[in-house]
Structures
1.
Amino acid sequence: MTATPSAADAGTMQIGGDLTVNRLGFGAMRITGPGIWGDPPDHDQAVAVLRRAVELGVTFIDTADAYGPDVSELLIAEALHPYPENLVIATKAGLLRSGPNRWSPDGRPEHLRQACEGSLRRLKVDRLDVLQLHRPDPAVPLADSLGALIALQQEGKVRHIGVSNVNEEQLDEAMELTPVVSVQNRYNAGDRSSEDLVDRCQADGLAFLPWAPIQDADKNPAVGAAAEAHGATSHQVLLAWLLARSPQVLPIPGTGSVRHLEANVAAAAIHLTPEEVAAISGGH
């Protein structure tokens, strides 16, 4: 690993054909309070984490209006606005929060429009780089929800559209309606339920943003073996495995700690052997 960790060690990728980012991002969910609710326990530390992420070469930050709610976006603007030219901020809309650890879908077009307008204000931008539908709402046709995002894009308020927590059929429907640049689903070495979607994103040139990327680190013996071989932690090996899984995978590990952030970014310089990648893939 390099002496000074940098997200640039992971290489770059394009999102939507016009945004180039380093291929290790930052997920801004955990800079909020417990249960992803309210303000962080240490406001100054949350600001420090965001600023340190950019110092370490992170050029892609993922957030959502539901994180806090509103808190994550407000902190990003406080810490980083005016933004570096190369920083891409992706946010999400489509979930309501009624309390800690409570999430309920709301894909009504009027709600999505209201959420977009709120994100624009909180992030202090005229256009969102990427707006992702946070989760399809079973009570609202997907075409109606995406129609709202398409209208916002046509109005110049959204550059690119992404989807989150979708299956392959829903991705097909979305891509028939509009160009989609990203898919954000739960995916890690232990949970491979979105395996086909990773392959699909690679084939179609979409960014795949795995959430919960480093869960269950200790359940796979091959992870521990690779960690020992590389002088790394299990979490770092799992991030390195995601980077090796596909050039379209853009890991977005999140943390509220500068120390953990630096450890996560250091994973960008770990290069697993094909044998290690295969062993970890087969050990879930």
Note: The two ends are 26 Å apart (CA to CA).
2.
Amino acid sequence: MTPEEITVMRQRRYNAAVAYLHRPNPDLMIVRVRPDFPVPQHEPGQYCTLGLGNWEPRFPGSQDEELKPSDESRVVLRAYSISHPILLDGVLAEPQSQWLEFYVVLVRQAPADAKAPGLTPRLFMLRAGDRLRLGEKIAGGFTLEGVQPGDTVLFLSTGTGEAPHNYMLWELLRRKHAGRILAACCVRYNRDLGYLPVHEKLMRDFPNYTYMSLATREPSTTGRKVYIQDLITSGQLEERLGQTLEPARTHVFLCGNPKMIGVPEIDRQTGQRVYPQPSGVIELLERRGFRVDEPRTRTRGNIHFERYW
């Protein structure tokens, strides 16, 4: 496409601009997007889409992409959970309605036999003020529905799965939630903990909040990697929480790697739940009396996870 054609496509297809952009490391981005329209009403934990045209440049070193001529004028879209700044200028952030925050990791290479990643190599070429597409609909059932003021709340994530948890955590702190709150995030390297300084300050400011970070590829963890599941089976999570996991007054939120979550399937012949192996968090907690949300029967459990993955 010619530069003139690209200018026209941007004017026609984009409806938002980058208001703020921060990279904790070269492969990680916190971006705030200001739409041309009023931010839709939504709840912490929900998601919407981001998009860029296939005509946009790709991040150097990303997997080569093969596009058909008919694809060159298309906008590639992907759903992202909405994050939220928990602190601004060192204090709990005020509610705002001018922009939405997202927490994005650069995917340079697709798995074998999969198409090259289409969106993140383009997102990582953005600068403040650049234009992009923001979905006008915000949706999702991954919310704080049912959480009572005295409940224990666990946010368990991997990588950028922290995004919706940040928003829900901010909401709980803003409400002056009385129950214990613990967030744990597992990443490869410490540099992948984009919000770590924020969580460290939150622990100093809010006595009922605990943050646990796990890095599996740091030299110090060689031979003794610890994953989210290990925190549960070893009792370390309860030790840091200062109490046992009681289903009657605990809500668990899961976001990130599907292997960590471990969503079971229903055997068509027996009707029994079949869990993936190795065990994910859902199996470990259901053994202890927890129950996952069941959207088909509209039954709200005490294990919640985002289903757009």
Note: The CA atoms of residues 74 and 129 lie 22 Å apart.
